[in-house]
Please model this.
Amino acid sequence: MRGCASTARRRKSEAIGGSAVTRSPSHLPMAAAGLAAAVLDLATKSWVFASIPLHEDRAVVGSLLLLRPQYNPAGPWSWGHGWEWLRWGLPAVSVVALFVIGRFWLQADPRDRVKGAGLALILGGALGNLWDRALTILGTYEGVRDFLVVRGVWFDSNWNWGADFPSFNLADTWITIGVVLVGWRMITEREPAPAPAPSPSPADEVRA
Model:
Protein backbone atom coordinates (compact mmCIF):
# COMPACT_ATOMS: atom_id res chain seq x y z
CA MET A 1 0.00 0.00 0.00
CA ARG A 2 2.82 2.38 0.91
CA GLY A 3 4.51 1.68 -2.42
CA CYS A 4 1.29 2.36 -4.32
CA ALA A 5 0.70 5.62 -2.43
CA SER A 6 4.29 6.75 -3.07
CA THR A 7 3.99 5.94 -6.78
CA ALA A 8 0.71 7.83 -7.02
CA ARG A 9 2.19 10.88 -5.31
CA ARG A 10 5.20 10.78 -7.62
CA ARG A 11 3.01 10.57 -10.73
CA LYS A 12 0.88 13.46 -9.49
CA SER A 13 3.99 15.54 -8.86
CA GLU A 14 5.33 14.77 -12.34
CA ALA A 15 2.00 15.64 -13.90
CA ILE A 16 1.88 18.97 -12.06
CA GLY A 17 5.47 19.72 -13.00
CA GLY A 18 4.89 18.77 -16.60
CA SER A 19 1.81 20.96 -16.91
CA ALA A 20 3.72 23.87 -15.42
CA VAL A 21 6.45 23.49 -18.01
CA THR A 22 3.90 23.22 -20.81
CA ARG A 23 2.10 26.40 -19.75
CA SER A 24 5.24 28.44 -19.07
CA PRO A 25 5.37 31.56 -21.29
CA SER A 26 7.97 31.73 -24.01
CA HIS A 27 9.71 34.44 -26.02
CA LEU A 28 9.44 32.35 -29.19
CA PRO A 29 6.12 33.79 -30.50
CA MET A 30 7.40 37.35 -30.24
CA ALA A 31 10.73 36.32 -31.77
CA ALA A 32 8.81 34.90 -34.73
CA ALA A 33 6.84 38.15 -35.00
CA GLY A 34 10.02 40.22 -35.07
CA LEU A 35 11.58 37.99 -37.71
CA ALA A 36 8.38 38.17 -39.79
CA ALA A 37 8.45 41.98 -39.55
CA ALA A 38 12.04 42.06 -40.87
CA VAL A 39 11.25 39.61 -43.70
CA LEU A 40 8.14 41.58 -44.73
CA ASP A 41 10.14 44.80 -44.78
CA LEU A 42 12.85 43.32 -47.00
CA ALA A 43 10.31 41.64 -49.26
CA THR A 44 8.34 44.84 -49.87
CA LYS A 45 11.54 46.79 -50.57
CA SER A 46 12.66 44.21 -53.12
CA TRP A 47 9.25 44.10 -54.79
CA VAL A 48 8.84 47.88 -55.08
CA PHE A 49 12.38 48.49 -56.34
CA ALA A 50 12.02 45.69 -58.89
CA SER A 51 8.60 46.86 -60.10
CA ILE A 52 8.86 50.68 -60.18
CA PRO A 53 11.70 52.79 -61.61
CA LEU A 54 13.54 55.04 -59.17
CA HIS A 55 11.74 58.29 -58.23
CA GLU A 56 8.58 57.40 -60.16
CA ASP A 57 5.23 57.53 -58.38
CA ARG A 58 2.52 54.90 -58.11
CA ALA A 59 -0.69 55.92 -56.35
CA VAL A 60 -1.88 53.66 -53.53
CA VAL A 61 -4.54 55.78 -51.79
CA GLY A 62 -5.50 58.48 -54.27
CA SER A 63 -2.95 61.29 -54.18
CA LEU A 64 -2.33 60.87 -50.44
CA LEU A 65 -0.18 57.73 -50.28
CA LEU A 66 2.34 56.97 -53.01
CA LEU A 67 4.96 54.36 -53.77
CA ARG A 68 8.16 56.15 -54.77
CA PRO A 69 11.35 54.06 -54.63
CA GLN A 70 14.44 56.04 -53.66
CA TYR A 71 17.66 55.50 -51.76
CA ASN A 72 18.22 57.29 -48.47
CA PRO A 73 21.90 57.54 -47.50
CA ALA A 74 21.03 59.55 -44.38
CA GLY A 75 19.20 58.70 -41.18
CA PRO A 76 15.51 57.88 -40.70
CA TRP A 77 13.22 60.20 -42.69
CA SER A 78 16.31 61.71 -44.41
CA TRP A 79 17.66 63.14 -41.16
CA GLY A 80 21.32 64.19 -41.48
CA HIS A 81 21.29 64.28 -45.27
CA GLY A 82 24.79 64.97 -46.60
CA TRP A 83 26.66 63.81 -43.50
CA GLU A 84 29.16 61.29 -44.85
CA TRP A 85 30.02 59.85 -41.44
CA LEU A 86 26.47 58.43 -41.21
CA ARG A 87 27.44 55.83 -43.82
CA TRP A 88 29.55 54.09 -41.16
CA GLY A 89 28.14 55.56 -37.98
CA LEU A 90 24.53 54.47 -38.39
CA PRO A 91 25.33 50.77 -38.94
CA ALA A 92 27.51 50.79 -35.81
CA VAL A 93 24.75 52.49 -33.81
CA SER A 94 22.22 49.99 -35.18
CA VAL A 95 24.31 47.00 -34.06
CA VAL A 96 24.68 48.41 -30.54
CA ALA A 97 20.95 49.20 -30.41
CA LEU A 98 20.09 45.65 -31.49
CA PHE A 99 22.11 44.18 -28.62
CA VAL A 100 20.64 46.59 -26.05
CA ILE A 101 17.04 46.17 -27.18
CA GLY A 102 17.49 42.41 -27.56
CA ARG A 103 18.73 42.12 -23.99
CA PHE A 104 15.85 44.28 -22.77
CA TRP A 105 13.46 42.03 -24.69
CA LEU A 106 14.92 38.84 -23.19
CA GLN A 107 14.64 40.28 -19.68
CA ALA A 108 11.03 41.40 -20.18
CA ASP A 109 8.16 39.29 -18.88
CA PRO A 110 7.01 37.16 -21.86
CA ARG A 111 3.45 37.34 -20.49
CA ASP A 112 3.43 41.08 -21.26
CA ARG A 113 2.32 40.75 -24.87
CA VAL A 114 2.07 44.50 -25.53
CA LYS A 115 5.65 45.26 -24.51
CA GLY A 116 6.86 42.05 -26.13
CA ALA A 117 5.20 42.91 -29.43
CA GLY A 118 6.58 46.44 -29.30
CA LEU A 119 10.14 45.26 -28.70
CA ALA A 120 9.80 42.60 -31.40
CA LEU A 121 8.67 45.22 -33.93
CA ILE A 122 11.58 47.50 -33.00
CA LEU A 123 14.03 44.62 -33.45
CA GLY A 124 12.45 43.58 -36.75
CA GLY A 125 12.56 47.12 -38.12
CA ALA A 126 16.14 47.63 -36.96
CA LEU A 127 17.20 44.39 -38.65
CA GLY A 128 15.52 45.38 -41.92
CA ASN A 129 17.29 48.74 -42.12
CA LEU A 130 20.59 47.33 -40.85
CA TRP A 131 20.55 44.91 -43.79
CA ASP A 132 20.27 47.83 -46.21
CA ARG A 133 22.98 49.82 -44.43
CA ALA A 134 25.37 46.85 -44.49
CA LEU A 135 24.85 46.40 -48.24
CA THR A 136 25.33 50.14 -48.70
CA ILE A 137 28.79 49.85 -47.15
CA LEU A 138 29.53 46.97 -49.53
CA GLY A 139 28.42 49.07 -52.50
CA THR A 140 25.33 47.06 -53.41
CA TYR A 141 22.89 49.85 -52.53
CA GLU A 142 23.16 53.62 -52.42
CA GLY A 143 21.39 53.83 -49.08
CA VAL A 144 18.38 52.49 -47.21
CA ARG A 145 15.56 51.66 -49.60
CA ASP A 146 12.59 53.94 -48.92
CA PHE A 147 9.40 53.85 -50.94
CA LEU A 148 6.42 55.18 -48.96
CA VAL A 149 5.42 58.83 -49.37
CA VAL A 150 2.50 60.61 -47.68
CA ARG A 151 1.69 63.84 -49.47
CA GLY A 152 0.74 67.21 -48.03
CA VAL A 153 1.03 66.35 -44.33
CA TRP A 154 4.35 67.92 -43.32
CA PHE A 155 6.35 71.15 -43.21
CA ASP A 156 8.76 72.42 -45.84
CA SER A 157 12.15 73.99 -45.13
CA ASN A 158 10.42 77.31 -44.34
CA TRP A 159 7.98 75.65 -41.91
CA ASN A 160 5.04 76.03 -44.26
CA TRP A 161 2.44 73.28 -44.01
CA GLY A 162 1.58 71.14 -47.01
CA ALA A 163 4.87 69.47 -47.96
CA ASP A 164 5.33 65.71 -48.40
CA PHE A 165 6.28 63.70 -45.35
CA PRO A 166 9.88 62.36 -45.71
CA SER A 167 9.90 58.99 -47.45
CA PHE A 168 10.09 55.87 -45.30
CA ASN A 169 9.66 52.10 -45.42
CA LEU A 170 8.01 49.35 -43.41
CA ALA A 171 11.03 49.06 -41.10
CA ASP A 172 10.53 52.69 -40.04
CA THR A 173 6.84 51.94 -39.52
CA TRP A 174 7.57 48.90 -37.34
CA ILE A 175 10.04 50.89 -35.22
CA THR A 176 7.56 53.74 -34.73
CA ILE A 177 4.71 51.41 -33.73
CA GLY A 178 7.05 49.47 -31.43
CA VAL A 179 8.25 52.61 -29.65
CA VAL A 180 4.64 53.72 -29.12
CA LEU A 181 3.64 50.31 -27.70
CA VAL A 182 6.63 50.08 -25.36
CA GLY A 183 6.23 53.69 -24.22
CA TRP A 184 2.53 53.24 -23.57
CA ARG A 185 3.16 50.04 -21.64
CA MET A 186 5.87 51.62 -19.51
CA ILE A 187 3.54 54.49 -18.63
CA THR A 188 0.55 52.31 -17.77
CA GLU A 189 2.16 49.29 -16.12
CA ARG A 190 2.00 49.05 -12.34
CA GLU A 191 4.40 47.61 -9.84
CA PRO A 192 3.29 44.15 -8.65
CA ALA A 193 1.61 44.19 -5.25
CA PRO A 194 3.77 42.81 -2.41
CA ALA A 195 2.96 39.27 -1.33
CA PRO A 196 0.92 39.09 1.92
CA ALA A 197 2.80 38.04 5.01
CA PRO A 198 2.12 34.41 6.04
CA SER A 199 -0.30 34.05 8.95
CA PRO A 200 1.16 32.52 12.11
CA SER A 201 0.48 28.85 12.74
CA PRO A 202 -1.27 27.68 15.93
CA ALA A 203 2.05 26.31 17.19
CA ASP A 204 3.67 29.74 16.82
CA GLU A 205 0.78 31.34 18.72
CA VAL A 206 1.16 28.85 21.57
CA ARG A 207 4.92 29.50 21.79
CA ALA A 208 4.25 33.24 21.84
Summary: The chain has six helices and five strands. Confidence is low (pLDDT under 50) at residues 12-23. The CA atoms of residues 149 and 167 lie 5 Å apart.
